[in-house]
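Quick question, first post here. What does this chain look like in 3D?
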Amino acid sequence: MESKVLIVEDDHNDLELLIKKLKNEPYELFIADTGEKAFNVLEEQKIDLVILDILLPDIDGFEICKRIRKSEKYSHVPVLFHTTVRTTDEKLIGLEMGASDFLNKAADERELLLRIRNLLHAKKAIDALVKCSIMDALTNVYNKMYFQHRIEDEIKRSTRYKREFCCVIVDIDHFKQLNDRLGYVNGDRILKRIAEILNLNIRGADILCRWGGDKFGWLLPETEMNDSYLAAERLRHFVVISEFGSKDEEISLTVSCGVSSFKAAQGGTKEIFYQADIALKKAKSEGRNQTRVYKEETEA
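> Answer (accepted):
Ran it through. Tokens below.
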């Protein structure tokens, strides 16, 4: 897979020379001639490396690097300063701003390519560690710890901007009996298949995690209760019509869903999950294979 490299350079001649040096490397290049355009690219693409000049028409390279390091979204992206600056003081400023490396534009091409490869190799190693820390190993969706972190972020955002969001707990019906009958290997296969179906049928802005066992958590940012209920019902329907069996045995699965909203909870992560779980228990007690939303009378 090609690494995505963002070049932030406003000098046309320097840019052309740099592109020429990188043309035979396995990189997909993105170009920006201002700091504003650079951040637009960072928002739209999963950039693996930023090659950054210091002197730019709007924001200087030092400020760009500083903002990259402050951003949770791309703080781990390596930054290589590629500039005509030669003084030690300016190099130290760049390193203080969080630069990963510093190279003069007049440096040997082989040194440039080697430094880029080293930075990309380090980035891949960090990405692998990050993935292990936030992903569920079996289902390849987010884990509970990361999901709680994202919920807390959403609470802060919703409190500040007066926006609604909802949380859904999705639980596989009668999974224990199925697991006992088919064995844990097939049980794991079904969990992975469920995760695939859920992931394929949620929005790009939504967050899905394996909450534990056969439960999945689903965060729907900036979504009101009624829309979240309809989304959960649509997801439940996709599970009903999906295939889970093998050539030897047909397996029909259903899920139950409980929906809570931040507006109703007006509290922290625990309150939101507590209310979603109450709604889920209501769905289970009323026959399963259905979605229920949290209301105060649900607790009665």
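The first strand starts at residue 3 and ends at 8.
The radius of gyration is 24 Å.
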